[in-house]
Amino acid sequence: MDKKNALRAGALAAGTTLMMLLMSSPALALTRDDGDDPGPGLSVIQTLGLYVLTPLVLFAVIAGLVMVLDKSKIRVVKPKTKA
Known about the structure:
- Helices cover 57% and strands 0% of the residues.
- It is mostly helical.
- The chain has a domain of 26 residues.
- It is built from 2 helices and no strands.
């Protein structure tokens, strides 16, 4: 019974994926809409700077500010040893 359900689920997933691929039309992406005015493209360096370096720098700045402005006291409790 378990094998039958797995086969049914796989067929449903494959059918759904196939229908989505057939219904989507990538050719429509080439058609310009009224008022569509795309700007110039980005170079590889600009793309890496915008989508990789900028988030990393922002993360580092925020993490640094949190660490520097942390007001909590770090308390290390050492267990008392009897000698």
